[in-house]
Specification:
β6, α5 and β7 form a beta-alpha-beta unit. The protein is α/β, with parallel strands linked by helices. A 6-stranded mixed sheet has the order 2-1-3-11-4-12, with helices on both faces. It has a 6-stranded mixed sheet with strand order 7-6-8-5-9-10. The protein has 2 domains: about 170 residues, 3-Layer(aba) Sandwich (D-Maltodextrin-Binding Protein, domain 2); about 130 residues, Periplasmic binding protein-like II (D-Maltodextrin-Binding Protein, domain 2). The chain is built from 13 helices and 12 strands.
Length: about 350
Amino acid sequence: MFIGPRSILSVGAVLAAVAAAVPRPAAAEDVAAFYKGKTVTILAAHENGTGFDIYARALQRHLHRHIPGNPAVVVQNMPGAGGVVGANWLYNIAPKDGTTFGTFVFTAPFEPLMGNKAARFDPAKFGWIGNMEEGVAVCGVSKAAGIDKFEDMRSKEVIIGASGQGSALVKSALAVRNLFDARIKLVSGYKGTASIKIAMARGEVHGVCSLLMSTVRSHWRDDYESGNFRPILQLSGRARLAGVAHVDDFVKSDDDRQVHGLIFGIQSLGKLYAAPPGIPADRLDALRKALAATMKDAEFLADAAKMQIDISPMTGDEVEAVIAKVSAASPEAVERAKQALTP
């Protein structure tokens, strides 16, 4: 059938009208218009000077170039309860418009799974933005501890400093004590690793557990290179540290491996970032893309190299997958992990 020019115009007009009536996702320029002139806040749920703070401030200096509209970016510290205070605030109180997101320790998303009633959030509902570093965590001691290898910790008492109850620093030390028979005396209550570093210099404690090697190589660099601080047990990371025992050396069964994954394997989420639940999908996507782009930014990478911090990023989807997998652990594995984390 022949369609004349007038009919073609009519059909075109109808199609245009239909297309205009169909709701479309916000265009990139709409996201840029939202962020233009605004300030984006990165919540660091740990004290100033910790690895989380150091990474957040490195990100803050470069992220603005990759968010549409180029908003200002600032860092706000909110330490407490091993990151749970900040995670609670981000989930329940923070603006849900894409102007606020945060970073907290890798154990925080699993606090509800482990029965912590103070953790008032559902990890599956956070908007996971990504991870700046796949964490390689260690227990380490000062030279004054008189410990040369991990086996020495089974015969000689070591005073380990930690932050608040429920923090990764406390949990890792408890797990090492309970799973591997280390003679650890735990002293908690420090604000974070920066405070513990000072306490070690004063001789108040001998060491710390769950310290990331990226922090060791940056904020603890002088002590590390001089031998005043020595990694003694590697808790996470596929690449082995030379001359350092690894928790995987103590795996004797598949059950052991699953428990280790619940306690130590989650440390691969070394510097993860999350947005509050319910932020507009286009803005979450913009933040995800901005973080990923920053991780490849030449100026950022030069800055990171100067600071001697490790960059081994994961996408938001990859972080989400890790959290979903760990959250699906069997009740038996969860119960055994809980027992290992009991004082």
